[in-house]
Amino acid sequence: MAKTDASRHAPQEIDAYLAALPDDIRQALERVRTIVREIAPDCTERVSYGIPIFRLGKDLVGLSAHENHCALHTMSPPLVKALADDLRGVKVSGATIHFTPDAPLSRDLIEKIVRERVKELGG
Questions:
Q1: Are the beta carbons of 91 and 69 closer than 8 angstroms?
Q2: Domains in the chain, ordered, with CATH?
């Protein structure tokens, strides 16, 4: 089995992923995508393992839609642990933060997560 190019930039894959979602879910995830791209404008985008992934040499963060929630995949259990105070009252599963369109993550929290991930990746 051939390994896919992890650095491949395919934003159209994320566009297609988002286009298939209900409007409220799509808008919630597009908001997070916009913030990620503002903080890490050099990141590449693609769908990997069935979810939108943003990369800066390595996986930075990911997004996904589920039946009852949206998710921001931090790709970093240590970061989630370090942000425990910031995540108080937010459902967290491992390195994944759950939210809904009716209870979105704050812009400040998303920015903090992405900035910290950039630092972790050496950026």
A1: yes
A2: 11-118 (3.90.1150.200)
